[in-house]
Automatic annotation (TrEMBL):
One Pfam short name: GerE
Transcription in keyword set: yes
Source organism per UniProt: Actinoplanes utahensis
Taxonomic lineage of the native organism: Bacteria, Bacillati, Actinomycetota, Actinomycetes, Micromonosporales
Domain HTH luxR-type: 147-212
Name under which the protein is recorded: LuxR family transcriptional regulator
Keyword annotations from UniProtKB, A to Z: DNA-binding, Phosphoprotein, Transcription, Transcription regulation
């Protein structure tokens, strides 16, 4: 059973998500919060598997709340939900360690799928947000190279895997592309996460673009 905490400053939104999740097999809402500060306390106490986190909230916004939540409960997965798809929110949320970012008008079925995906340890972005994120890096005139410092310890094969992750390929697709086993691919991804200090695949994408690796992909 995947345990979820819903964080939103609107009671009606929290109630709507609660009904949707509690009527879905395999999901249950174990708590809720009306602002970021309350979210930090609730998540720290209940230690759920997934947090649905709004961005714009009183007292403490969702991005700062996400940073604090992950500092206290590193294993929790945070799915950002917002009515806004502005670039600065996307980038800040992913930098804070969120495992996903969806708009609130996302169809219910897609939201449920997203929760299951990030609960399983993967990451997810709404398609339109993925396009915005990639476009932001593509528009940068001079990518910052050599970031982060752990990049120097990445092997040639791990670099190949990193480039394919940045292109949006799944582990299965990477295995087929590089003609290696799925287990080997998962090992490479796990080592990349550790070496580069990334929480999830989305942050690996950010590393690849910030380091300018995609220019040579």
């Amino acid at each position: 059973m995947t345990r979820v905490v819903v964080v939103d400053d609107q009671a009606l939104v929290r109630a709507s998500f609660g009904v949707l999740l509690d009527t879905t097999p395999g999901l249950t809402v174990v708590g809720e919060a009306g602002d970021g500060a309350e979210a930090v306390d609730v998540v720290t106490r209940l230690r759920p598997d997934v947090v649905l986190m709004d961005i714009r909230m009183p007292r403490l916004n969702g991005i700062d709340a996400t940073r604090q939540v992950l500092a206290r409960v590193p294993d929790v997965k945070v799915l950002m939900l917002t009515t806004y798809d502005l670039d600065e929110y996307v980038y800040a949320a992913l930098r804070a360690g969120a495992s996903g970012f969806l708009l609130k008008d996302t169809p219910p079925a897609d939201l449920l799928t997203a929760i299951q995906v990030i609960a399983g340890g993967d990451a997810i972005l709404a398609p339109q947000i993925t396009r915005r994120l990639i476009r932001e890096f593509a528009d940068r005139p001079e990518p910052r190279r050599g970031l982060p410092h752990g990049l120097a310890g990445v092997t040639e094969r791990e670099r190949d895997v990193l480039l394919l992750v940045a292109q949006g390929l799944s582990n299965t697709e990477i295995s087929e592309r590089l003609h290696i086993s799925l287990a080997t691919t998962k090992t490479h991804v796990a080592r990349l996460l550790a070496k580069l200090g990334a929480r999830n695949r989305i942050q690996l994408v950010i590393v690849a673009y910030e380091a300018g690796l995609m220019e040579t992909a």
